[in-house]
Amino acid sequence: IAGGSLQKKYAVRLAKFNDELDRNGAGYLLFMRFIPLFPFFLINLCAGLTNLKLRTFLWTTAVGILPGSLVFTYAGRQIREINSLGDIMTPQVYGAFILLGAFAVIPVIYKKVKEFKERKS
């Protein structure tokens, strides 16, 4: 609702941003979904103010929330086995956080590989 009017009002200022979003919007959204620093409601709000395609928003949301959900589900499952503070940071928990971090760099790697292939062709 507000996205269209904001896009019209600030069309000149947002032109470069919209071009970048058209080219790499999926990568940006995946990155923000994988990194738990960005609250989902804020990502959703900002995405609604852009020209991002709904299909891109939907698939990046579905894929982007999966790794974090798995890590948090695993962490919740482990709560019943915690007897002391030292039991929290097990190798499995470290592994889950490392895996979550690895998922966060996938869009960056994908973009670099895509750019490399485009330069070769």
Describe the fold and architecture.
It is a single chain. The chain has one domain (2-120). Helices cover 79% and strands 0% of the residues. It has 5 helices and no strands. Helix 2 runs parallel beside helix 4 (54-78) and helix 4 runs antiparallel to helix 5. The relative contact order is 0.12. Pfam families: VTT_dom. Keywords: Membrane, Transmembrane, Transmembrane helix. Residues 7-77 form the VTT domain. One of its GO terms (cellular component) is membrane.
Blueprint (SSEs and pairs):
Layout: H1 2-9, H2 11-34, H3 40-48, H4 54-78, H5 91-120
Helix pairs in contact: 2-4, 2-5, 4-5
Transmembrane segments: 26-45, 57-76, 88-110
InterPro entries: TM41A/B, VTT_dom
Main location: membrane
What portion of residues belong to β-strands? under 5%
Which overall shape is indicated by the principal axes computed on the Cα atoms?
A: flat
Sketch the topology as an H/E string, one letter per element.
Answer: HHHHH
Number of strands: 0
Provide the number of structural domains: 1
Average predicted confidence as pLDDT:
81
Radius of gyration (Å): 18 Å
By DSSP (H or I, 4+ residues per run), the number of helices equals 5
Q: How many strands, what sense, and barrel or not for the largest sheet?
A: none
Helix content: over 70%
Residue stretches low in confidence (pLDDT < 50, at least 5 long) are none
User: What structural class results from the helix and strand content?
Assistant: mainly alpha
Roughly how many Å apart are the termini?
Answer: 41 Å
